[in-house]
Amino acid sequence: MTVILALSGALLVVAAALITYRVLAGPTSLDRLIALDALLAIAMCGLAAWAVHSRDTTIVPAVVALALVGFIGSVSVARFRVRDDQ
Question: Phi and psi (nearest 5°) for 80?
Fold first, then answer.
């Protein structure tokens, strides 16, 4: 079980590094928004993996709160997004 958790943690770190590049180099603001949403999803997966590793269920409300914040943030930014200059 520890090997699987270590492998999943390493894969989450690699995915976070790739998505951070997309946040910094995204050609449009919508690309950056999607990358930030994916980065938030990776953070939620990391917290869930930590909850499995530590066998502590008090982290679950934090994961739910992050999911709600990510959803509301994505919807509000997408609603009021201004078109990028091309």
Answer: -105, 20
Instruction: Kindly state whether residue 86 falls inside one of the protein's structural domains.
Output: no
**CA gap 31, 17 in Å, rounded:** 16
**Count: domains in the chain:** 1
What does the alpha-carbon distance between residue 82 and residue 66 come to, in Å, rounded to a whole number?
Answer: 25
Tens-digit pLDDT string for the chain (86 aa): 789 999 999 999 999 999 999 999 988 888 888 899 999 999 999 999 999 999 989 999 999 999 999 899 888 887 777 676 66
Cα–Cα distances (Å) from 76 to 21, 33, 54, 80, 82, in that order, read 23, 11, 35, 6, 12
